[in-house]
């Protein structure tokens, strides 16, 4: 955790892209999500047996309420690949036909799990895989900061809120933006403002857990939501972000750029949030209060 008296200096500069390795053209079995909240996600079948399901212990996890915790199994035997249902509540289909026993699948087959999720089975090589992952990444990520984009953020927040409600677990949402960001753009130029957003995102991602979701919600506004983190824990997260930015010097061409955050926090079930929009509104009201109180501070909804 950074000490308030210790400064980390970040010099904003363009970083060159590393050269990519030569592709491996060997074909291997894959699954691509065609429908559902995880649309576009791509999985390589690289084990002889893989469990598909909603459980965090599943080999291929698909977080949809209509999918059982251990829903189906993919089995590889030599050059053949099979799927079998594991007694799921809503069944497994291959090309629209409900299966009741282990069934062989072929390139291009569509697998439907539960009511909403369809996956395409296909054989791909490393070039195909890289292309699919770039497509998936482009569909989910903000082009500048590489944080998740607003569309994915809202879809995922709905899924996370449903999970929290189903498991009676807390879900915290931290919304923050840069104070006086327009002045940074006007004084130092938009390219420098963009670099500040990129470095801010990197700093935040270095502080949070892998399972936490960070997305760019607006021009200089970001949302971070944390599964299983209660109100007290969310305050710790917000304070950690604030300390990290306060202890960082953003420098461009020898000029120090003043950067600070205003932060609003809201936590389910402290906030009665029937929808994700209600939780965002609560955090946004807290953010407004932080700005009204002088900026560079944290405000907790309901306090």
What's the main sheet like? 6 strands, antiparallel
Approximate shape: globular
CATH homologous superfamily caption of the largest domain: Reverse transcriptase/Diguanylate cyclase domain
Tell me the series of helices and strands, N- to C-terminal: EEEEEEEEEEEEHHEHHEEHEEEHE
CATH topology of the largest domain: Alpha-Beta Plaits
What is the CATH top level name of the largest domain? Alpha Beta
Distance between termini? 26 Å
| Extended strand count | 19
Task: Please name the CATH architecture of the largest domain.
Answer: 2-Layer Sandwich
CA radius of gyration is 22 Å
- Look at the structure and give the mean pLDDT: 89
Task: Give the helix/strand class.
Answer: alpha+beta
Q: Which runs of at least 5 residues are low in confidence (pLDDT < 50)?
A: none
What would you say this structure looks like, in words?
There is one protein chain. The chain is an alpha+beta fold and 303 residues long. The chain folds into two domains: 28-140, Sandwich (Tumour Suppressor Smad4), CATH 2.60.200.20; 150-300, Alpha-Beta Plaits. The chain has helices spanning 126-140, 150-167, 181-188, 190-207, 231-246, 276-292; strands at 8-11, 28-35, 42-44, 49-53, 60-61, 72-77, 80-85, 92-94, 97-98, 103-105, 110-113, 117-124, 171-178, 213-216, 221-227, 248-252, 255-257, 261-268, 298-300. The strands form four sheets. It has a six-stranded antiparallel sheet with strand order 3-2-12-11-8-9. Strands 5-4-6-7-10 form a five-stranded mixed sheet, with no helix packed on it. Helix 3 crosses helix 4 (190-207) and helix 4 crosses helix 5 (231-246). The mean pLDDT is 89.
